Amino acid sequence: MKKIKAFWESLDDLATVSKRELFLEVVCCALAGFVLGMLLCPKKTTVIGSHNGNGRYEPDEEEDFAE
Question: Which class for 24: exposed (0-12), middle (13-18), buried (19 or more C-beta within 10 A)?
Fold first, then answer.
């Protein structure tokens, strides 16, 4: 706990960050957010659409879609 407290107190110092470093930090945070969002999203329970049958493939139908 003492190491964490010492580290937390050392963060009070001011630091100069270049525009390139700031841009890369923003890009990394955005990409990490996209990845976490894709991993944690409820993709199996969310349905978007009206279920009217358009564009849905039914394996029981005997149509040949290769033609």
Answer: exposed
